[in-house]
Amino acid sequence: MESRPRKLLDQVRDVIRMKHYSYRTEKSYVAWIRRFILFYNKRDSSEMGATEIEQFLSYLAMQEHVAASTQNQALSALLFLYRAAFSYSSDNVSGD
């Protein structure tokens, strides 16, 4: 019997739980990652990087008028996705 690859958000949840993050952090990160994926019409997030993250964060600030703390929360979730879930080096995606 073939096993299907696990969905990205399930993989993210697994990594969050392995790192013993709080349930609230898990919910928040998964929600931001989902929103990022939907923003790019379900484009494969492993093919995106710093440019797409910057565009998404700019959209949040300019169009959605989110607070800086909200924007930082979204950034933290996306950095987690790329650093922990995809195991990218910080050279590919930075928090600067």
From TrEMBL:
<keyword id="KW-0238">DNA-binding</keyword>
<dbReference type="InterPro" id="IPR004107">
    <property type="entry name" value="Integrase_SAM-like_N"/>
</dbReference>
<dbReference type="InterPro" id="IPR011010">
    <property type="entry name" value="DNA_brk_join_enz"/>
</dbReference>
<protein>
    <submittedName>
        <fullName>Phage integrase N-terminal SAM-like domain-containing protein</fullName>
    </submittedName>
</protein>
<feature type="domain" description="Core-binding (CB)">
    <location>
        <begin position="1"/>
        <end position="86"/>
    </location>
</feature>
<dbReference type="InterPro" id="IPR044068">
    <property type="entry name" value="CB"/>
</dbReference>
<dbReference type="InterPro" id="IPR010998">
    <property type="entry name" value="Integrase_recombinase_N"/>
</dbReference>
<dbReference type="Pfam" id="PF13495">
    <property type="entry name" value="Phage_int_SAM_4"/>
</dbReference>
